[in-house]
Amino acid sequence: MSIEISDAISRLEVTNELARCSRPLTVEISLSDGRLYGDMDGRGKEPLVAQSQTLFSGLYGLGVEFFTDSQGAPTHLFVKHVSGDYKFAPRR
Fold it and tell me: 7-90 adopts what CATH topology?
């Protein structure tokens, strides 16, 4: 499957400060040699595998779904977990 990744998504750093998390979590998304990677809280970069234009698997066994505005700029992402999805918003 050929997926085109926007520059904005390939350099995304997001944070989660939901009440159900004991501390804020950070996910960094990067693009290297044409491959998309995710790193949660400095645990190491994991290659993300495209399932669709916006849905990826491979983040330590979790899914990642990207959401963008009408211009293609990332607005947030969800890390998909069996206990529920965790919403992450870009760091400002």
Answer: Lipocalin (2.40.128)
